[in-house]
Amino acid sequence: MRIKTIIEFPNKLPKPFLTLLGLLLVLAIGGLDTITSYDVSVSFLYLLPIILVAWYEGGLSATLISIFCAFNWAMSDLMSGHVYSHITVRIWNATMVLGMFLLIAYSISAAKKLFIKVHEHADTDDLTGVASIKFFYEQAPFEISRSAISKLPLTLAYIDIDNLRHVNDTLGHIAGDYLLHEVAQIMRSTLRPTDIISRLGGSKFAVLMPETNNENATVIIYKVQEHLLDVVKKNGWPVAFSTGVVTCDGPTYTLDELIAMAEDLMNTAGETGKNVVKSKILNLSSTTS
Fold first, then answer.
1. How far apart are CA 9 and CA 18, in angstroms?
2. Count of Cβ atoms closer than 10 Å to residue 203 Cβ
3. Domain 133-288 superfamily per CATH
4. I want to staple 154 with a disulfide (CB 3.0 to 4.6 A). Which of 10, 119, 147, 180 is the partner?
5. pLDDT tens digits for 94-108?
């Protein structure tokens, strides 16, 4: 969440704002560079607006701010009275400064793209495309806290694909991987964008549904299961689904407690029969199936 905030916060500002801020910084640094003359160099300060604009805007804005920085450096150098042995030396130095600024701007922009790619990769399960277990354990506590503050219900569904190992053993791991991928895609297409779908490992998935009471959550999960059974039947996969659903509607529980209770319900569902959903409202301690 902190990383995402660092990346996205400036995007909420008016688009020209950061570029204008960068230009003002360049002018201020150019003025300081002129006042201090060539005896005291402050050229490194030009990196501040370059890094700012290259990280948050990149592209043409980063190129233009680099050129503007190089131009201001050259003007400050000229006005300082610094005498070179030949005019070509002044031109060479300005060219090298421009090249350095452009290289830094490009490197910062490329670093941001790589940074975002790595961060997104860590947040996504490679096989299924849903949230990774890492992302789930980072995001879920925020939703639990938000639920406690807003006094709105929060539901966690824990879903297990029964007999996935049998699919891997008889049809091969490619078929098993395809099954996991299809299950994840059906969940994504059936559930709301605000629901957090995560693969917790192996054949187990978790779905966190903010602002959702037990009745509505159970209806949604049965709808998901109906779609899952359709694709299972279509592909001839010998699997079933066991699901535990817990709704926190009053008391505050930790994520580990919610997962433990949902997993217990899921195991009970698996022992009861195929394609069973067991649900529980925590503040009432009532269980339905």
1. 12
2. 22
3. Reverse transcriptase/Diguanylate cyclase domain (3.30.70.270)
4. 147
5. 899 999 999 999 998
User: What is the torsion angle, in degrees rounded to the nearest 10, for the CA atoms of residue 197, residue 275, residue 165 and residue 247?
Assistant: 40
Cα(189)–Cα(207) distance, integer angstroms: 13
Q: How far apart are CA 158 and CA 257, in angstroms?
A: 13
- Give span(s): CATH 3.30.70.270, the chain: 133-288
CA distance 257 to 281: 14
Place of tokens 């978790």: 206
**pTM of the entire structure?**
0.61
Print burial letters for 253-269: b (CB count within 10 Å at least 16), e (below 16): bebeebbebbbebbebb
d(CA 101, CA 198): 43
Helix then strand count (H, E) for the chain reads: 10, 6
Query: Is residue 287 pLDDT above 60, yes or no?
Result: no
